[in-house]
């Protein structure tokens, strides 16, 4: 099969790779859409030791079951493979499973390929009227749905439901969309890239600003650098909540003294539960997250160029989706 293979720092090759084999209980999926995630970019830059070269990256995907009696079934893929039997899984917190795996990390190759194998429980059926390129957004949208759900659960019921999202990439935009779907009408996105701000305003209908002044009850850091954590610490209102999603760098930025004196809740959020994924997929199918027509689509064969364009800041769209068969 053809795949986009990470071969070293800032090096990707579109080439032949060993054909994936489905194990018992798994389906072989013909991938038709696979999005580039920020974590793929971290690996590409050599910043993620969990993703050593050579490796097929990609975990935001949708496609069609290739084998067996369900051949032809259109599905979006929950890439988080868990044991299903530990205390975390039994409690519906599969994202905390100690033995969790995710495609695009060893031992599971990713979805920047023509095929991938996945367990049945990781698949959600996509209605015929929903494009698979839109269904592939379920994974990044679920990350933000999970963060928004936890943050709103932690917010004191007497506080206003106003929010700031730091970062206007796919996760930040998705956080804004998720919060609006959950009843938060006043959401601003802070994004330093002028081209992306314009895209968010004109193509996504979002309130996008270069700098945010003031304080809000709820802040989502969708970037995860020391500077954005410092901004989140300053922007959170007394008694407010910071939901931290981004994994840009490991340390620095939080104003612990202010957070302590002002009783600001900090929540680290990782991926999503299986229910979050299903709920997000249904919200996509129902149109509750908007038209979702903002990704840029390219062939997987142009994947290396797509990564270079993202690296240089030349892409205004919050998401690039790659098609292995284009």
UniProtKB/TrEMBL annotation:
Gene3D superfamilies on file: Medium-chain alcohol dehydrogenases, catalytic domain, NAD(P)-binding Rossmann-like Domain
Keyword Zinc set for record: yes
Domain Alcohol dehydrogenase-like C-terminal: from-to ranges: 170-283
Upper classification of the organism: Bacteria, Pseudomonadati, Pseudomonadota, Alphaproteobacteria, Rhodobacterales
Alphabetically ordered keywords of this record: Metal-binding, Oxidoreductase, Zinc
Cofactor(s) demanded: Zn(2+)
Chain ranges of the Alcohol dehydrogenase-like N-terminal domain: 23-128
Entry protein name: Zinc-binding alcohol dehydrogenase
Pfam families named in the record: ADH_N (PF08240), ADH_zinc_N (PF00107)
Family: Belongs to the zinc-containing alcohol dehydrogenase family.
Organism whose genome encodes this protein: Phaeobacter piscinae
């Amino acid at each position: 099969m053809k795949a986009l293979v990470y071969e070293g720092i800032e090096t990707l090759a579109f080439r032949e790779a060993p054909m994936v084999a489905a194990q018992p209980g798994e389906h072989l999926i013909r991938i038709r859409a696979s999005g580039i995630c920020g974590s793929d970019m971290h690996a590409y830059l050599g910043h993620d030791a969990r993703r050593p070269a050579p490796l097929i990256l990609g975990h935001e995907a949708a496609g069609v079951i290739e084998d067996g009696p369900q051949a032809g079934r259109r599905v979006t893929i929950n890439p988080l493979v868990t044991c299903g039997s530990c205390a975390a899984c039994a409690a519906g917190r599969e994202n905390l499973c100690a033995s969790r795996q995710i495609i695009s990390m060893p031992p599971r190759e990713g979805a920047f390929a023509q095929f991938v194998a996945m367990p049945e429980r990781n698949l959600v059926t996509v209605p015929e009227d929903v494009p698979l390129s839109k269904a592939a957004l379920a994974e990044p949208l679920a990350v933000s749905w999970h963060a928004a759900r936890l943050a709103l659960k932690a917010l004191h019921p007497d506080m206003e439901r106003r929010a700031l999202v730091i970062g206007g990439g796919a996760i930040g935009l998705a956080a804004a969309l998720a919060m609006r779907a959950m009843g938060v009408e006043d959401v601003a996105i802070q994004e330093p890239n002028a081209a992306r701000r314009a895209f968010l305003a004109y193509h996504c209908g979002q309130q996008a600003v270069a700098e945010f002044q003031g304080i809000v009850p709820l802040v989502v850091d969708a970037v995860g650098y020391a500077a954005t954590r410092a901004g989140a610490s300053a922007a959170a209102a007394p008694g407010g909540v910071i939901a931290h999603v981004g994994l840009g760098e490991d340390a620095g930025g939080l104003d612990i003294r202010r957070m302590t004196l002002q009783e600001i809740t900090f929540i680290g959020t990782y991926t999503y539960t299986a229910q979050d994924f299903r709920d997000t997929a249904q919200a996509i199918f129902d149109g509750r997250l908007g038209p979702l027509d903002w990704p840029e689509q390219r062939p997987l064969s142009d994947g290396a160029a797509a990564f270079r364009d993202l690296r240089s800041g030349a892409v205004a769209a919050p998401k690039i989706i790659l098609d292995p068969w284009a």
